[in-house]
Amino acid sequence: MTEPTELDLNDDFQPGDWEDRFEVSSSFVERTLERVVADRAEIAAEADRVEEIQLPREVLEALSVPEPSTDFVDRVASEVRNDREARWARVLETYAAPRPNEEFVERTLSALRIDRSGFRLVPDEQQQQQQPAPVVSIWRRTAVAAAAAVLVSLGAFAMLGSDPAEPPELSPALATQTYTPASWSTALSGVVNDIEDDMTFEPIAAFAMPIGGNR
Amino acid sequence: MTDLQPKTIAAAQAGDDDACREIIRALHRPVIATIYRFLGSRYSHEVEDIAQDIFLKIFRSIERFDATRGVKFTTWIYTFVRNHCFDIIKRRRIRTTSLSGGRDDEGQIEVPDEGMRKPSAAAENSELGQKIEEALDGLGEDQRMAFVLREYEGLDYSSIAEVMGVSEGTVKSRLHRAKEALRTRLKPYVRTGA
After folding, report:
1. In a 3-state reduction of DSSP, which class is residue B103?
2. Nearest to B77 by CA among B42, B41, B136, B35
3. CATH number of the B6-192 domain
C-alpha cells in the first residue's frame, strides 16, 4: 500500500488544483480536437463507402425467441402499479411538513379575522387596548325613562286639569310652555339626541368585535 | 414495433393503469426479443425478469418522455433496453464468446465461457439458430445491438443512432462490420440458403 500523498492529505484539495500540479502539454487540446475531427471524417467516409450487406431473412429468422409467459403483461402491470405506490409511500414517509413559526401563525390568524369580519385587521392586543363598545349605563337609561314619564304625566295632568274652554295660556303652571303632542315628541327626541351624543359610538370598533360580540 | 397513440402515452404519464398495461402489452414481445437476441440464450431463464426491470425503469421515467422533441416513443423504449442490457453485461462481467478470438468494440479480450450457457435453452433453437447466436455472440456489444435493432426490430439508422447515442455514420459503419463478420461466420448457411 502506498503512503498517502500530499494531495490525499489535503482536505482543501479542489479538482482545479490539478492544473497547478501536473504539466499538460499546451498542444493537448488542439491535438485531441484534430483526432476527433479526423475520426469523424473517417467514420463518415466509411459510411459512404460501405454497401449494405443483405443477409438472407430466412437464415436470420432461424434464431427464434422464447414465447413470453401468458401472464407476463398482467404481472408486469401489477408490478408497475405496486412500484408506483411504493415510491409514493416512500415520498410521503420522508416528507416532513414544515412547522410554521409564531409570526406565521399570527399573520394567518389575523388574515382569518379579516376574512370573518370583512372589514379590517385588528390584532388581539389592539382589540384589548381599544375602548369597550359604548354601553349606555343603567342609570342613564333610568333617567331617560323617568324624564319621559314626568313629561307624559305633566301632559296628562294639563289635559285633564284644564277647562277645554279656557285657553291654556291662562294657566299659570303652563304659562311658559304649551304642551301639545307635537311638542312632547320634539322634547323626547331632544332627550334621545342628547343621550346619543353622549354615547361614544364607534362603528369601526363594533365591526371589529369578535364573532358573537363576546369580549 | 408499432408506435403507440400519443393519448395512451399521455395517460400513462398521468399514472393511468390501463394505459400502462396497454403499453406493456404492445411492447413486451419486441422488448423480450431484443433482450434475448442481444444477451443470448444463456439468459433465457431470466429474460422476463430483465424485461420486467426494464418496464419498471420505463414507467419510473415516463414523465420525462417528451414527444415534442421528435423522438419516437419506441426509440425511447429501446434506449432503456440497450442501457439495461449493457449494464447487465458490465455488472456481471460477462465474457462474450468470440469465434475469431478478437477484441470487442471496447478493446476487451473476449474469453469463451461455455459454462454459462444453458444447454436446455440453447436446444430450443435449431442448429442454424444456435449458429446465429454464436455468431452474434462473437460481435462486439455495440455491433450486436446495432445489428439486432436493424435486422430484427427494423429500426432505421437515425433511430439506432438515437438509441446508441452515436452518429448515423457510426451506425452504418458498425452495421457493415457486423454483417460482414456474420456473413463470414454463417457462410455455409448463407450459401445453401439454410
Report:
1. strand
2. B35
3. 1.10.10.10
Any CB–CB contact under 8 A between A173 and chain B?
A: no
What CA–CA distance (Å, rounded) separates A72 from B51? 10
- Dihedrals φ, ψ of A100, to 5°? -70, 145
What pLDDT score was predicted for residue B193? 44
Residue A129 pLDDT level (bands cut at 50, 70, 90): low
Residue B187 has pLDDT above 50, yes or no: yes
Which chain B residues touch A72 with a CB distance below 8 Å? 28, 32, 48, 51
Phi and psi at residue A30, to the nearest 5° = -60, -45
Give the 3-state secondary structure of residue B90. helix
- Pairwise CA distance, residues B122 & B41, whole Å: 6
Ranking A129-143, A188-202, B5-19 by mean pLDDT, the lowest is A188-202
Q: What tens digit of pLDDT does each residue of B54-102 get?
A: 999 999 999 999 988 888 999 999 999 999 999 999 887 655 554 444 4
| Whether B4 contacts B23, CB under 8 Å | yes
A186: number of Cβ within 10 Å? 10
Q: Is A70 on the interface with B (CB under 8 A)?
A: no
* Segments making up each domain of chain B, as ranges: 6-192
The minimum CA-CA distance between A20 and chain B, rounded to whole Å, is: 32
Q: Where are the domains of chain A?
A: 102-131, 138-202
Neighbour-count burial of B64, counting CB atoms closer than 10 A to its CB (0-12 exposed, 13-18 middle, 19+ buried): exposed
CA distance B78 to B52: 14
Collapsing DSSP states into helix, strand and coil, what is residue B87?
Answer: helix
Distance between CA atoms of residues B194 and B187, nearest Å: 10
Across all residues in chain B, what is the average pLDDT? 83
List of E strands, chain A: none
pLDDT band at A143 (very low <50, low <70, confident <90, very high): confident
> Which residues make beta-bridge pairs with B109?
B103
Q: What value of ipTM does the predicted structure carry?
A: 0.78
Closest C-alpha among B141, B177, B146 to residue B160:
B146
The span from the CA of B124 to the CA of B144, in Å, is 21
Provide the pLDDT for residue B166. 93
* Nearest C-alpha in B relative to A75: B52
